[in-house]
Amino acid sequence: MKIGKYLKDKFCEIFLIIFFYLVFLMMLTVFRVSNTLVIAFSIVFWTMIVLIFFIDFFRRKRFYDEFLGNIEALDKKYLVLETLAKPSFYEGEILWQGLYETHKSMIENVKDKIHEIDDFKDYIEMWIHEVKIPISSLTLLCHNHKDKINKTFLEQIKRLDNYIDQVLYYVRSNYTEEDFTIKRVSIDKIISGVLLKNKDDLLENKIDIEVDLEEGTVYTDQKWLDFILNQVINNSIKYKRSDVDSKIKITTVKEDDKIILSIWDNGIGIPEVDIENVCKKSFTGMNGRSMTKSTGMGLYIADKLCGKLGHRLEVSSKINEYTEIRIIFGSNDFYKDMG
Questions:
Q1: Is residue 247 a contact partner of residue 266, using CB atoms and an 8 Å limit?
Q2: pLDDT digit string (tens) for 83-110?
Q3: Could you tell me the pTM of the whole model?
Q4: What CATH number does the domain containing 245 carry?
Q5: Where is the domain boundary, 85, 112, 131?
């Protein structure tokens, strides 16, 4: 709060004070009051006025400087009221009370919205679990009647199942604390399950699998990691090259206190201009637009879940040579305590 702007705001009060002071001087002159008394009165009067403005200014300055400073420092600026003491001057009390009522109203409104979102999330999860039952039945039906049902039907059902999984994990990624179990799990077991799930596509596309695991266990959530690896393997199958013998290599290595899981393929690769954006929401890139219809959500959700789990997902690639997805399982005190 600046003194110049404060005085400018008090212009009307200052003008009236000067005006009535001059009127009072004229009255003293009319009544022939001695100059000594006039000077004494003026000194007392202006000392009192300066003190009143001085006290008023610094009382407001202390409150408003703290108010603006706290707003500047806070990341969540709507919490500023929690950092302020109730002011000692009337205007500040009005502002403080207004902020309190606004804050209270916002909290109530946010609570209502959270309840609405939670209800919608619960409905989506329930709907997904319900719709997965007929999808599983259709998949089993296609497997039991392969000679009668065109394989295209099974491919489309698998795509539908994968998209529904994306919806489920996207919704849950914002509520991981409700579906979150960190424990030591076997990477080999998860990889075997993912490869088995994609067995038909791997065989049909004649993709060789090489698995070499130096480190066999990590601390993670098994369901989340299963989904993440499934998205990566699906991309490796989807973007394979037709002019080479397709291959996927899955390896783990230990570097310092970190375990790195690598999924490498010799597919079409990712253009250099797209690499830094492949994990962004709805980003399809040149490959997604030119080769196959893509939602651009698979790696985005995978990367988001890795962040929630305390892992890191990295992408490296060279066009028409390879793509490598690395999941880095870091070591921290939380995991050590669990161990």
A1: yes
A2: 888 888 888 888 888 988 988 898 899 8
A3: 0.69
A4: 3.30.565.10
A5: 85
